[in-house]
Amino acid sequence: MRRTDWIPRIEATDLPLFEAIAQSIAEDIAEGTLLPGDHLPTQRQLAKRLNLDVTTIARGYATAASCGHVESRVGSGTFVRAVSSSEATSATRTDVVDRSMNQPPDLPVELLEAMKRSAATALEAFPQILRYQPEGGDARDKAAAFNWMSRRGIVVENHSLHITTGAHAALTAILSAELAAGGAIACDQLTYPGLFGIASLLGRKVQGIPADREGMLPDALARTIEQKGVRAIYLNPTLHNPTTATIPLQRRLDLVKVARQFGIPIIEDDAYGFLPVKPPPAFVMLAPEQTYYVGGLAKCMAPGLRIANLLVPIARKTLGVSERLRAVSVMASPITTAIVTQWIESGLADKILAGIRHETRRRRKLLLPAIPKEKVQTAEHCFHAWVTAPETTSAKRMVETLRGFGIGAVSVEAFRTDPISPNAFRLCLGGAVSVPTLEQALAWVTECYRA
Asked: Cross-referenced SMART domains, in alphabetical order (predicted)?
């Protein structure tokens, strides 16, 4: 191990300084200037040499770490990683993680190994899973999907099940079937950004409805339906993205009453519904005759699966949701579906969910003391938080810095239906970021509130 007096080349660059530091590390590793095991200067040492603040150096090191080039050891410093040939692809892929997405935390190595072994078992079904499959999934895959949803208390009779290529495909098919061109869908004033993209693609409108800490306001929803001609209601009712709110049972019943009064469907996006140990009943169980249920697996298993279970009320089947799904994607990937089925049948899916909950609790314990209580909305088993920025800075500026640490953060602009919105951002505690890096980022956040 060499202790180096390394200095990054950052003079002639248009990159932000922290990115230039990370790029210089990568280039010097490629050229052999930095070798595996080399001990980089401390953040304070390098900051002094370059006449920069320590935060910029910390962001540069964190960015290099997220790309797999260096690693931080508590109490020892930052070292150039020794990357084996088998790790090379993994390290390259780390470099392209989308930090605008809300992702569950990475799982322990032993659980990841179990997932790999189980996936290999699923892939023994060659060549069958290389062929076209029935649209919506075959009998075994659907049985596993119903089995999984029953853990959430969802047991239905008057719905058809479709295994789809993720929640986006399901939502696209539903909005296309339920709303005519120019039609409007109601949602929270702060809502899932993917809904905007789908509505824009289809030429539909999004109408924001005011909410309080318990979710969408029923009276406001009723007025909007009457005045704006809204023809569907989109809800993300459990651990809401981005505010983390969960609609309690009575408010759910009040919203169901409004939907029934006007005869319009509820589209329930239950992306986070499996994370709480005891969530409220799903809308599909409270109003089965008019609720589309979209149960994506991205947050409770893994986003790379791109699988969601869609329940379509039999009474609305003639609107053509299944035909639209087939037109968009033909079928969900039989390979991915086989892996999901194997995980559910073997009980591994339950262990994955338990692992996500455990790691989320661990990271949330770091969050709570870092930010003033009145500035953060969070919930147990929720791996994102809704944070109000301090008066001295903007949410956009905080997001930019946090992304430099490798943290997934998104400013309020991505979620809002109303131009008047809080100075806030969604902070993701998950993804590939390490706990030491998260601690470092949260320490910086704490300093922002002390400034």
From this structure: HTH_GNTR
Beta strands in 109-199, from DSSP E residues, in sequence order = 159-164, 184-188
CB 444 within 8 A of CB 58: yes
Alpha helix stretches (DSSP H) within 51-108: 54-66, 88-94
Sign of CA dihedral 40, 41, 42, 44: negative
The tokens 């029935």 sit on which residue?
Answer: 134
Q: How many CA atoms lie within 13 A of 409 on its CB side?
A: 25
pLDDT at 98: 66
Side chain identity at residue 397, one-letter code: R
H helices present in 32-108, as ranges: 43-50, 54-66, 88-94
Residues 401 and 446 both lie in one domain: yes
54-74: pLDDT as tens digits: 888 988 888 888 777 888 877
For the chain, give the percent of residues with pLDDT over 90.
Answer: 70
Phi and psi, residue 342, nearest 5°:
-60, -45
Task: Give the total number of structural domains in the chain.
Answer: 3
Q: Which amino acid is at 297?
A: L
Q: What is the pLDDT of residues 335-383, one digit of tens each?
A: 999 999 999 999 999 999 999 999 999 999 999 999 999 999 999 999 9
> Residue 250 sits in which domain range?
114-348
Inter-CA distances, 390 with 43, 176, 363, 377, Å: 26, 41, 22, 14
